[in-house]
Amino acid sequence: MTTEQELPEGWKKTTLGAEFEWSSGGTPKSGVPAYYENGSIHWLNISDLNDGLISYAEKKITELGLQESSAKIVPQGSVLIAIYGSIGKLGINTIPLATNQAICFTKKIPEYILNKFLFYYLLSIRNQLISMGKGGTQQNISQTVLKSVPFFYPTSKETQQAIVNKIESLFDEIDEGIGRLKTAARQIQQYRQSLLKNAFNGELTKEWRSKHADTLPSENEMLAQIQTAREQHHAQQLADWQTAVSQWEQNGKEGKKPSKPKAPTQAVKFEENFADLPNGWGVIRFENICDLIRNGISVKPEGESGTKIFRISAVRPFQLNLDDYRFLNTDDVGDFVLNNGDLLFTRYNGTRNFVGVCAEFKSNEIYVYPDKLIRAVVNSTEINNTFLMYGFNTGISREFIESRIRTTAGQSGISGSDIKAIPVIICSLAEQTQIVAILESKLTACDQLAAELSKQLKQAELLKQAVLKAAFSGSLLDK
User: Fold this and answer.
1) Are 182 and 458 in contact (CB under 8 A)?
2) Would you say residue 2 has pLDDT above 60?
3) What is the pTM of this model?
């Protein structure tokens, strides 16, 4: 509604400033203990606003803190709205309290307007208020701006109450549906966790293993197979190196001589003190089955074209976003080009949960990786890299990584040495392949269900907006 003619019969068009007296709070000086210690006055911050009824604040101030600051007692039943940062966040206080300066409140509500009607009106125009925000990192609106916002209402309090009742009835129905959707989402997440746990304790393939018991290698046979495959891999590396040296010599020894690949120095063996695994399974240190653990290139990404270099945000548990990259304006990227099947770990991150998480690079395109990621190259064809990737993000491997994370100045990280020492659960290649096939099938189904639930949750929130739109155009009671 934008003009008087569009108003339903019995409605009035005005402004928030014309109908309501507004004020905002203040903050007692933080360095004065007498303003806070043993305080009994609930003192709201924006984080306390819950888009509902408020009877408690995390922080409290004293009577002295109230008197010697610009904080004010907010009358019970006032409508509160955030005007800094989280613009439009709302609440109605059920007890007298105070607020900081980021919260605006109604000092007095006319007797002919219901506080809940105003509350839902403000909720309906939240996006409009957000769009009016000014400022840099933390946008805000002033009281002057808030007061200038149009306000429409039916002059009959009975009609206002009927609209509030209808909104709350429909919101209750929608919230019930949202609750069911969120429960289903939690159940999917629990199922995912259960799948991954059972993948690495043997339960997921227990039946498969019993059917193939006669063909599966013993622990010693499996170790021997891994060792043999590792030696064959090194032999191929030597052959490739010799070819590269010959080519380098034919080119007049231009540039740096190719580096000779190092032979594995440690025999593959099972770690001790890891019980409760099926026969034929074991735990080894990751360094026993990998050629390379290396941080990425330390060149600053810039330019609109060139060599693709992943952002650190491209690596998340179980997945690598091939579209999350920047460009290097140089082709001099050395040995930092990724190969199909390489594993990438996050080396640093501001969020601890994303430190040391692993994803597999599955592409034949040219990408390089930055110094905040760590690349690992497996050296045995008896190891399924995707199986390792799943294992690194769950169970004993993830627990080990979390135990090694160090946090300094708000930045959490791990080292290449930590990656080398990760305990890795191993079974036969055939069973690894079976586990990967089951996980990818079932986890894909989980992802599809989760995406559908997310879509339905967004639709439910949009339905609330539709209810509010109908309410304040005067058509809700006609439905």
Assistant:
1) no
2) no
3) 0.77
